Amino acid sequence: PQTRLQTQIQLSTSQSPASSKASLSPACNVSSGTTGGHANGTCNGTNPKFVLSLEKVRSGIDVRTALMIRNIPNKYSQKMLLSALEESHRGHFDFMYLPIDFKNKCNVGYAFINFVQPQYIVSFYHEFHGRKWGKFNSEKVCEITYARIQGKQQLISHFQNSSLMNEDPKCRPVVFGQDGKQEEFPVGSNVRTRRG
Predict the structure, then answer these.
(1) pLDDT per residue as tens digits for the range 71-100
(2) H helices then E strands: how many in the chain?
(3) N or C: which end of the chain has fewer CB within 10 A?
(4) pTM of the predicted model, to two decimals?
């Protein structure tokens, strides 16, 4: 069985089965739909399936809802990040997870968020993409891309049987019901236990 960290890395770096070459860095190619290149947050060599085009979201062509938030300062806790996201976007997302490196007691620099509707991505992108983070005087600039795993239920399924469920419950993904209220993260029946 995979370790928690292997699962997290796989979630952020996996490519399609058709891809013969695995990338060692998360997807980072983002497009506003009108410009290209590094000036708008595009990294070279990124799998095009992770490219976020606001024009396609606005027009309803791209209906994906799960995003990867990159370049998060390592001192941010899940609670801090959730607070920042909820300031303007409360009720717009139903899943959020900031993976933690438990050995070093800090986040790994990226998070996942799933929106209730694709249209909510537009204002979120405008608020966060290409901007510096407000805490810790960090020079890191936020990048927004699509996540490999899409949809609340698929994200829950990915994590609910992992060894992550053996860690502090405060470090589990955060899920919200249709009423917008936070719910307990559902632990799977096949949770992988630590080898001891």
Answers:
(1) 999 999 999 999 999 988 989 999 999 998
(2) 5, 10
(3) C
(4) 0.73
